[in-house]
Amino acid sequence: MSKSKSGANEKNNMKWWQLSLFGVGCTIGTGFFLGSGLAIKMTGPAILIAFLMAALGTYFVYDALSKMTAKEPLQAGFRSYAKKAYGRWAGFSSGWVYWSSEVLIMGSQLTALSIFSRFWFPNIPLWVFTAIYAVLGLTIILIGVKLLNRLENILAILKISAITMFIVIAFLAIFGVIDGNRPIQFPNSANEIIPHGIKGLWSAFIFAFYAFGGIEILGLMATNLKDPSEAPKAGKVMLFTLMFIYILSIGLAVIMVPWNHFNTEESTFVVALNSYRLSFVPHFFNATLIIAGFSTMTASLYGVTSVLETLGKEKDAPACFAKKGKLKVPLWTLIITMLGVTASIISALLLPNKIYEWVTTAAGLMLLYNWLFILASSRKILELKAKEKFMYTIGAVIILIAVSGTLFHATSRPGFFISLAFIGVIALITFILSFKWRKEQTKEKSKRKVLKPWPTA
Question: Phi, psi (5° rounding) for residue 186?
Answer without folding.
Answer: -90, 130
